[in-house]
Design brief:
elongated; about 350 residues; single chain; about 40% helix; binds 6-O-phosphono-beta-D-fructofuranose; 11 strands; about 15% strand; alpha/beta
Length: about 350
């Protein structure tokens, strides 16, 4: 019998989601002749039993395929909500929509919730990892990360010239509440002098010393500091700074660091803060994200065809392979390895990346 599969995007959006949808619909309809239902707004749409029939011809605009390079998600998404309080409604929706399988594109939080639902409802679930944070375990790639890294590097390229022209320290705050992959990758690729991430706490004295050294020893009058929104102070500094007017969460981490640099240099160093925010989630997907999205979408459909459920498509050693969702959930979020080659390379280049784990 002709299969009917559902697809949804869940959690924060990122570039490349539409590319995954494109690959899933294309492979499922053209290769297998299945019906594909898009479920809008993740679990909210599921709960409300909403579904949109998707097929390759539905979005053919004079031969142009907009999904290849369109950011965001045509299905809409949510990254909050009380999904587990409505379990029964959602389990009933899966039955009512008569789905043979559900392909979900999400980060570790969404995968945890959907895996729980799938267990309770005996759903045929296949997952695809997406997140600009790149913190989903058991995969070297997640859709959206590469584009976000490129967006930050582009910002760093621009900021470097204005920083150099004015002898300023530019503090660039990037996303990453609990994992610093984004800051670390973009900071190294974009030529940062300091990269602060949640996994390696920093001290204000070392940070200031590093910037002073750049000026005094190397005559580098400007500096670029990339700071993840979840970067942490060393414990001894936390107590001292608790009373600071601008300690997070009173202000963002970037502003706090700018104030500290101004303070420790007796206001001799001029600082500016750029918070990149949701610019990092927008934009046209990079070539690598398009490739990853295409291979992930195709592989997810093949897993459904093979009846291999409860699996996420992961990228390991140059190949897309199935990994059990329950292992992914148990091992996520994936943190930066403080002993890993990226941190070590950054240190060898003279970048201050914090010290303690
Ligand atoms: O999880 C991805 C992420 O981009 C985080 O790095 C960031 O803190 C968060 O989403 C912000 O999400 P939103 O503003 O959509 O709630």
């Amino acid at each position: 019998m002709r299969k009917r599969i559902g697809i949804l995007t869940s959690g924060g959006d990122c570039p490349g989601l539409n590319c995954v949808i494109r690959a899933v619909v294309s492979h499922a309809t053209l290769t297998y002749d299945w019906e594909v239902l898009g479920i809008p707004y993740a679990t909210q749409g599921l709960r409300e039993r909403q579904a949109i029939a998707l097929n390759m011809h539905g979005w053919d605009l004079r031969g142009i395929d907009p999904l290849l390079n369109m950011g965001g998600t045509i299905l809409g998404t949510i990254n909050k909500g009380d999904t587990l309080a409505h379990i029964d409604e959602m389990l009933a929706s899966y039955e009512a929509l008569a789905l043979d399988a559900l392909i979900v594109i999400g980060g570790d939080g969404s995968l945890g919730i959907l895996h729980e639902l799938a267990n309770r409802g005996n759903w045929n679930l296949v997952a695809i990892p997406k997140t600009i944070d790149n913190d989903v375990a058991l995969t070297e790639r997640a859709v959206g990360f590469d584009t976000a890294v490129n967006t930050i590097v582009d910002a760093l390229n621009r900021l470097t010239f204005t920083a150099a022209s004015h002898d300023r320290v530019m503090i660039v705050e990037v996303m990453g509440r609990s994992a610093g992959h984004l800051a670390l990758h973009a900071g190294i690729a974009g030529g940062a002098d300091v990269i602060l991430i949640p996994e390696l706490s920093y001290t204000i004295s070392r940070l200031c010393q590093h910037i002073a050294e750049l000026r005094d020893r190397w005559q580098r009058k400007f500096a670029i500091v990339v700071v993840a929104e979840g970067a942490k102070l060393c414990l001894e500094d936390v107590q001292e700074n608790i009373a600071s007017a601008c300690a997070p969460p009173k202000c963002g981490r970037g502003q706090y660091i700018a104030d500290q640099i101004a303070q420790c240099s007796q206001n001799l160093i001029d600082t500016r803060v750029s918070v990149l925010g949701h610019i990092q989630r927008g934009g046209i997907p990079s070539a690598l994200d398009r490739l990853t999205a295409t291979v992930f979408g195709k592989t997810a459909v093949d897993l459904v065809a093979q009846g291999k459920f409860g699996q996420m498509v992961g990228w390991q050693n140059g190949e897309a392979i199935p990994v059990p969702i329950q292992d992914v959930v148990a091992q996520s979020p994936l943190h930066v390895n403080p002993q890993g080659s990226l941190v070590q390379s950054a240190r060898c280049l003279g970048i201050y990346v914090g010290e303690k784990t």
